[in-house]
Amino acid sequence: MSTATTPVEHAAPPESGPRALFHRLRHGDEVAHLVTLTFAALILLITTLLVFELWMGSVPTRGKFGFTFFWSKVWDPIGGDFGAIPFIYGTLVTSLLALLIAVPLGLAAAVFLAELAPRKMSDMIAFLIDLLAAIPSVIYGLLGIFVVVPLMRTVIGPALKHTLGFLPLFQGPNYGVGFLTASLVLVIMVVPFIISVSREVLLTVPREQREAALGLGATRWEATWKVVVPWARTGIMGSVFLALARALGETMAVTMVIGNDPKIRESLFAPGYTIAAVIANEFNEATSDLHRSALIELGLVLFLITFILNGLARLLMAATERGGGHS
Amino acid sequence: MGRVKLIWRKSLNVVMLTLTGVAAFGVVAVLFMILGYFIWNGGTSLNLDFFTKLPRPEGEIGGGVANAIVGSLKLLFLAAIIGLPVGLMAGVYLAEFGGKTFSFVIRYTTDLLNGVPSIVIGMFAYSLVVLPVKHYSALAGGAALGLMVVPITVRATEEFLRAIPNTLREGAMALGASKWKTIATVIVPAASGGIITGMLLALARVAGETAPLIFTALGNQYWSPGWGQPISALPLIVYNYAISPYDDWHRQAWAAGLVLLSMVLLANILCRLVISRKGVRSV
Amino acid sequence: MNEQRRTPKIMRKTLVVLCLLFASAAIASAQSNVLLNAAGATFPAPIYSKWFDVYHTAHPNVQVNYQAIGSGGGKAQLTAGTVDFGASDMPMTDDELAKLKTKALHFPTVLGAVVPTYNIPGVSSDLNFSQKALAGIYLGTITKWNDPEIAKANPGVKLPADDIVVVHRSDGSGTSFIWTDFLSKVSPDWKSKVGAGTSPNWPVGLGGKGNDGVMGLVKQTPDSIGYVELIYAMSQKIPYGSVQNAAGKYLKADLAGVSAAAQGAAKDMPADFRVSITDAPGAGSYPISSFTWLLIPTHFDDATKGKAVKDFLAWMLTDGQGYNEALAYAKLPPAVVAKEKKELSEIR
Fold first, then answer.
1. Is the minimum CB–CB distance between B191 and chain C shorter than 8 Å?
2. Is the ipTM of this complex over 0.95?
3. Quick check: helix, strand or coil at residue C95?
4. B242–A307: do the CB atoms touch at under 8 Å?
5. Contact A268, A169 (CB under 8 A)
6. pTM for this prediction
């Protein structure tokens, strides 16, 4: 008997003998296997090369500063002193603040789409929200400069100062650009991801769960909030991690509205800097090797953070698919 | 007592239905507001000059972005020929040939590549393609974008190939076709609709990328001949013009943004409609 | 099964259109020109882009693609070898020159001024800024517009009690160098705390990308102050202030003031043309003036490129200078032009 990959002998055309054809076809299969494998391996090669380049490119600063790079606040290209804290701070603050607003908003919308809305409406709206996710970053940046910044300066900023001005978070001059503005722009950029992934996860929750809750007399909202959402908990967390990873790496929209000042400040109205923004602004012109190396090391840091987050997200998503929110 | 609680629960139900609905419709409304803003601010600038002329010197009024439109198309072309074959072949490997551990490694690496921030890809392309030949070039920009196209293409190809029922494969092999022939002439064509839409979505995604181009394509005020010279692109125009003080450049930034937005949205609407009709999970 | 095989018609049509677009884009490219790629300072970008445009019209086969990414970028990319020549408002230091694989020469091109431009609601008159005021504002020690140091130089002007929004450059900038060079000369405090350079460690302020980025931020942000090259403020019709010079007089930047500042340098120009003319002596000298330079390699592998560059420079030193004043840059002093013409022969 032949194996799965060998063709049945009768079907061979009569030109060359069956043996020769058998060889040729077998050979073709192996060639195909090899060719596609090579391309797949190419991806592995390129990614390894990328990590390698990041590692090697950051040697000068890693050698000079070691771990002190991660708690130094100074960014002084003239003096040759570099530290990552202002950028890590800015990246984390803007992303986490964005999530703080985007997760409740996105989850609410996802719940509506998955549980409360009629199927056709839900599909239509989900389709439109997917389109939001496809809009390029620089478009959001343009809107940021001409719409969000003036809004922040004339409406949102004064309103916040009026109501919450006693908090150090909302004190200090309101430039229009700054941490808060960047966070707001990020909100609208990551909300679509949270909505579409959460909605999908919620839709996979077995009907029996919902029906059981409704059968016991729960209102639709109670069934959703107390039964369905907890069941999809891990998947929703996965969507949050994905959104966070996206926010951390966002470059153009943020660099156009954050103010480009590498300082740590308490006020959300103050200008700041993120890792991606400083690389975009300074990479082309880093004259000293140390300066370029510092930027590459920042890139390595960003890469590692997004790598870990994406990995966690994948694990959480896989866990949801396998067993639902048990535990 | 029980009645009060019931009324409370029922009203909470209604309130939550409304709030979540507001959230969902609010997010959708943003999409339309964005579109509206761009049409309002950029629509009137979409004249013949805009599409056919080259940029004027800094500070002067007029001119167009013809070289940026052509530049974007050239970069997309390069991204397509560099990234799509790799993505397709790797996707075929994962769906049809893959061994268990190696496939896992490849899938994980592809996901990793997908998550790399585009600015880091730009740095990588700079050190790989620009520095050695000492030239900013369309090729470098196309390579950076091509790299970003690969993960999306791999995922789409694998997904749509897997969706083809095994009966098709078995039937072909029962008729005497070898594995590679089955794949090439039966399976891939069957999945081609989904695969091509996946590819188009990948291209639409990189069409709007700016960060990788800053270090690779750099920008050009003129036409960029061949593939080895710096080249202009629509996202670069939007970025550079938006942060400038010139009102005329702002006007052109809105218009360029409108063109870019329309291209991306149209491609996405088209592709997603096709995919949803096929009933396969969207990319 | 048929459904899955048939690629929808509209997809096929789109593909055809795309292929046609790609093909035509690939073909639509001018051929057989001398293409020069240059990058650098935004300070002279308006005059450079004008020059390159005029030169291209007169010599259609020569195309200079100038990308204004900042002086820092110009020097870095020249060192990396990715551009044919660079432009910078800060001369290259000996260390930077040592890193170059091919020796490069500095060619002064124009004289320009850096002005303090501001956007204060309700204030449309020209303000006077003393040396102490500018240093204090940028050090962060002077925080409000109605600070006595600013007010006493501007009697009769009602300054608001608003916080000053300081704007500086976020990229490596020769304009920043000129500004901080001036501040270092007039304020020992500034010199010790920050110093002069293209990417100083700014104590306060927002960062804008390029002269245009700074101008854009100032234009859109009330109560802001920024430093830009003269033409940027003039063309945007944004007010800019007078600066106190070495002789104590308040001068508003103009061609006469800039040329006066360059007089001393014109007489004693060093052979490599690297000189700073900030805080120049003389009652009529505008204190924040500067030359700006093109950084030209002495040897081009491609002979046609070398010739094109030499021809352009020769044109720049003669006909090109005629375009300066319309864009508020001063012409190079004749003595300097003569020296540069001699330097041209060193390019091979």
1. yes
2. no
3. helix
4. no
5. yes
6. 0.86
